[in-house]
């Protein structure tokens, strides 16, 4: 597929998430910018599983708040 997501985006995943360990998942994550040209950040959260917002709300909130601050600064 050749598609583009044209909105500012961040991506977060836990390093213990099973999806992160699927075959080629890490390579696909590294190539995300090909389909998300406005990708601002990729964050791999150490020691976290699939439910980042529940397991590490401090980290998730910090990244989301910084994303919005940066977005507003670019307007």
From TrEMBL:
Origin superkingdom: Eukaryota
GO molecular function: hydrolase activity
Keywords: Hydrolase
Record-stated family: Belongs to the AB hydrolase superfamily. Epoxide hydrolase family.
Protein name listed in UniProt: Epoxide hydrolase
């Amino acid at each position: 597929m050749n598609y583009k997501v044209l909105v500012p985006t961040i991506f977060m995943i836990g390093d213990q998430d099973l999806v992160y360990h699927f075959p080629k998942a890490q390579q696909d994550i590294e190539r995300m910018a090909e389909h998300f040209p406005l990708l601002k950040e990729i964050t791999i959260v150490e020691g976290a599983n699939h439910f980042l917002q529940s397991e590490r709300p401090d980290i998730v909130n910090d990244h989301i708040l910084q994303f919005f601050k940066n977005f507003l600064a670019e307007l």
